[in-house]
């Protein structure tokens, strides 16, 4: 089918995309000669190469795959506020609830300047009526837009969305409610096309998650709908139920072969592989309390034994650190006392460990929560909860045997006290009093705590999703941080969002000031997002 030649502006963008970063399935540089002929256009013969590589770039960079962007964008914000880790570096004050402006500013600019920009080129080109026959790649771009932007709006609330890329000097924000409603509409549009192309393939050799399998992307889209539906449960219950039941009826992830895992390789490694070597964070006390108390077999995959061994004398060499230490109590000298991430992410692994986008275990826990509310989720809360644990523990990275898994599911073990190494924290209590075994006689709220706590463990190390779910539900129960330097968020309170960034106030002033009215509160870290209604 004849397609319009890509104009010079889009050609320059695509060549720039390819020269920045190589990818594991088909690197941009492999096809650079083809892309460079003719010098200012992409022809019908190589259009899939250019668009495919731009899409691949939007996948890796949109998910913050570049190590330093991941560090400032996820590891030093969401990962800490979800209490997957605590920092040991003296100058990392985000663990004391300080939103370090240069970090959030760089996250914003890199997301919109890299991942979102790449995707925008693909989506707009494939939507152009002068380029017929590109409905399927356009559907893929729409689906991936929902994946990327739900993570960004869950950081800030109102963000640049429908007006991004309009070429104007002032770009208005969308409210989070409008963004979420658009997500569901966009998923409908994408799935309408994908369902007509079942068994097909798009961006094969470039797609870093499913290698272009349309059927796999359909399952992912339904699963993403379920995630988003549950996110708005407290803000719009009727819409949440309708979308959740629609997702399950259409077919969501059921087994680990359905998991969305982004390939990595030399040049596009898992970012944890690089930043772990910098020695600036360690396992949190919350993790220690749950993993040790439950005798959870995932502890050996998620973390490494502390180099100093069993420093707190509790019989385990896995040691966690309380969040929010003042600068005077941190430094490289305490790193050997606490557990680093597991060998799976430690250097010198040059690629190989995929970036987790979504897994079937999460979907079972989402369905379990819906079943608690009486929604049609295809099972009882207990059945879905237990299957979520089972699927998590049979992931390739865990590989527990069925006898151990069954024993874990039936366990009445409780979270343990972390036995902190510092005298002033010796009274740190267990994180909670819930067992693993589903409390069939417990209240709905107690059962919800069990479901979310196990989901928090299963989706590690996805801190962005874990922080969102913690804000939405209040679970798992996490420790108050040791010290807060934020006047609006006390040590026993929750960071609810990031404030709008300085560059937007400087360069998009009127639109940013107008966005505050969409928040429902001041531009502060304690202002709740639209869906944060519990």
Sum this structure up briefly.
The chain has 534 residues and is mostly helical.
Descriptive notes:
It is a single chain. With 534 residues, the protein is mainly alpha-helical. The chain contains 20 helices and four strands. The strands form two sheets. The protein has a two-stranded antiparallel ribbon with strand order 1-3. Strands 2-4 form a two-stranded antiparallel ribbon. Helix 9 packs antiparallel against helix 10, helix 14 runs antiparallel to helix 17 and helix 15 packs parallel to helix 17. The chain is globular. The N terminus is likely disordered.
List keywords for this structure.
534 residues, mainly alpha, 20 helices
What is the end-to-end distance?
52 Å
Secondary structure tally: strands: 4
| Strand composition percent | under 5%
Overall geometry comes to: globular
SSE arrangement:
Blueprint: H1 8-20, H2 32-35, H3 47-62, H4 67-75, H5 78-81, E1 85-87, H6 101-127, H7 135-156, H8 176-195, H9 214-231, H10 237-250, E2 260-262, H11 271-275, E3 281-283, H12 285-293, H13 299-302, E4 355-358, H14 360-372, H15 381-393, H16 402-409, H17 444-458, H18 463-473, H19 502-507, H20 509-516
Antiparallel strand pairs: 1-3, 2-4
Helix pairs in contact: 1-3, 3-6, 4-6, 6-7, 7-8, 7-9, 8-9, 9-10, 9-14, 14-15, 14-17, 15-16, 15-17, 17-18
């Amino acid at each position: 089918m004849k397609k319009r030649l890509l104009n010079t502006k889009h050609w320059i963008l695509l060549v720039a995309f390819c020269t920045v970063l190589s990818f594991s399935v088909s690197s941009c540089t492999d096809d650079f000669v083809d892309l460079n002929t003719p010098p200012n256009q992409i022809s019908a013969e190589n259009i899939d190469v250019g668009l495919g590589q731009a899409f691949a770039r939007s996948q890796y960079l949109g998910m913050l795959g570049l190590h330093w962007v991941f560090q400032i964008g996820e590891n030093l914000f969401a990962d800490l506020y979800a209490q997957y880790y605590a920092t040991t570096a003296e100058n990392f004050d985000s663990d004391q609830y300080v939103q370090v402006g240069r970090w959030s500013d760089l996250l914003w600019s890199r997301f919109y300047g890299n991942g979102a920009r790449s995707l925008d080129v693909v989506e707009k080109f494939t939507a152009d009526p002068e380029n017929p026959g590109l409905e399927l790649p356009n559907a893929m771009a729409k689906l991936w837009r929902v994946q990327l932007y739900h993570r960004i709006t869950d950081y800030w609330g109102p963000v640049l969305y429908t007006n991004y890329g309009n070429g104007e000097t002032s770009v208005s924000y969308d409210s989070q409610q409008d963004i979420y409603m658009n997500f569901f509409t966009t998923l409908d549009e994408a799935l309408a096309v994908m369902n007509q192309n079942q068994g097909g393939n798009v961006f094969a050799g470039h797609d870093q998650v499913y290698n272009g399998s349309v059927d796999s992307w359909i399952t992912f889209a339904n699963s993403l709908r379920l995630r988003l539906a549950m996110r708005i449960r407290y803000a719009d219950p009727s819409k949440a139920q309708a979308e959740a039941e629609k997702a399950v009826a259409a077919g969501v992830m059921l087994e680990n072969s359905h998991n969305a895992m982004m390939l990595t390789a030399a040049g596009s490694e898992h970012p944890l592989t690089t930043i772990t070597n910098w020695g600036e964070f360690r396992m949190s006390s919350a993790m220690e309390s749950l993993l040790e108390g439950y005798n959870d077999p995932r502890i050996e995959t998620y973390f490494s034994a502390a180099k100093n061994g069993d420093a707190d004398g509790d019989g385990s060499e896995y040691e966690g650190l309380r969040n929010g230490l003042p600068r005077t109590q941190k430094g490289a000298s305490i790193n050997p006392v606490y557990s680093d991430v597991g060998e799976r992410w430690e250097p010198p692994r040059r690629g190989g460990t995929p970036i987790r986008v979504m897994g079937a275990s999460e979907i079972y826990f989402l369905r379990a929560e819906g079943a608690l509310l009486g929604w049609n989720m295809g099972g009882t809360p207990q059945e879905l909860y237990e299957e979520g644990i089972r699927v998590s523990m049979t992931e390739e990275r865990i590989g527990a045997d069925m006898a151990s898994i069954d024993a874990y599911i039936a366990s009445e073990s409780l979270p343990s006290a972390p036995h902190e190494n510092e005298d002033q924290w010796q009274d740190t209590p267990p994180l909670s009093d819930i067992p693993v075994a589903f409390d069939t006689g417990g209240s709905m709220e107690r059962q919800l705590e069990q479901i979310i706590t196990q989901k928090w463990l299963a989706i590690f190390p996805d801190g962005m999703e874990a922080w969102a779910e913690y804000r939405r539900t209040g679970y798992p129960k996490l420790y108050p941080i040791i010290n807060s330097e934020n006047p609006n968020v006390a040590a026993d309170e929750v960071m609810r969002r990031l404030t709008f960034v300085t560059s937007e106030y400087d360069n998009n002033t009127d639109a940013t000031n107008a966005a505050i009215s969409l928040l429902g509160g001041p531009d502060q870290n304690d202002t709740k997002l639209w869906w944060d209604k519990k």
